[in-house]
Design brief:
It is built from seven helices and four strands; from the N terminus they run H-H-E-H-E-H-E-E-H-H-H. By secondary structure, the chain is α+β, with helices and mostly antiparallel strands.
C-alpha cells in the first residue's frame, strides 16, 4: 500500500511520461504546465465511500474553476476491470442524476484497460492503461474549447492506436510498468 502522496506522484509521472510523452492527449501538456489538475486518492474499498469521493471531486471542480480536470485515484480497489467498469457506469449515471450532464465528462483509465472487442495483448489498450484504477473528470466546456483549435480531433484515437501498435506490446508495457 502506497501513501497518497506517492500515488499522486506516480500518477503525475504516468501523465508526463506516457500520456504526454506518447502524445496520447495533445491537450494534456498545457493543463499540466498550468497546474490546472486536481488529484485525489481514495484508499477505501467501500463503493459508497468511493462514490462520495467522486461527488466531492465534482464539488471541488464546481467551487474552483482553476481546475480544468481532476483524477480520482483508487490504489486499493477496483483491481478487476469489470468491477471498475461498473464504477465508471455508476459515476456517469451519478453525473446525470445530479444535473452535471454536459458539464463534466468521465474518462476511464485502468491498469488492465481493455477496449471492447480488442485482444488483451493488443498494444492499443495501453492508451488507457494507467498505473492505478482512476476516474478522470473533465470539464466539457474545456474540451470544446480545446477542440476548436485542433485540426481533425477525430484522428486522435486512430493515431494513438497506430503509435502503440508500431511501438509494440513489450515497449508499451515496459514504459508503463517502469513508473
Amino acid at each position: 500500500m502506497s501513501a497518497p502522496g506517492q500515488v499522486i506522484e506516480r500518477t503525475k509521472k504516468w501523465i508526463i511520461e506516457v500520456v504526454i510523452g506518447c502524445n496520447f492527449c495533445p491537450f494534456a501538456a498545457k493543463v499540466v504546465k498550468q497546474q490546472a489538475i486536481y488529484y485525489q486518492v481514495e484508499e477505501s474499498a467501500d463503493l459508497k465511500t468511493c462514490l462520495d469521493s467522486f461527488l466531492s471531486v465534482v464539488k471541488r471542480m464546481d467551487d474552483d474553476p482553476t481546475f480544468e480536470t481532476s483524477f480520482l485515484i483508487f490504489p486499493n480497489t477496483f483491481q478487476k476491470f469489470d468491477d471498475y467498469l461498473d464504477l465508471v457506469a455508476i459515476s456517469e449515471k451519478l453525473l446525470k442524476q445530479k444535473g452535471y450532464e454536459g458539464i463534466y465528462q468521465v474518462a476511464s483509465f485502468h491498469p488492465l484497460y481493455l477496449f471492447e472487442g480488442s485482444a488483451e495483448d493488443d498494444a492499443a489498450n495501453y492508451t488507457n492503461r494507467s498505473v492505478y484504477p482512476m476516474l478522470h473528470l473533465l470539464r466539457e466546456e474545456s474540451i470544446d474549447k480545446a477542440l476548436e483549435n485542433y485540426k481533425d480531433p477525430e484522428s486522435i484515437p486512430e493515431r494513438n492506436i497506430q503509435f502503440t501498435r508500431e511501438k509494440g506490446l513489450a515497449y508499451m508495457k515496459t514504459l508503463r510498468d517502469s513508473l
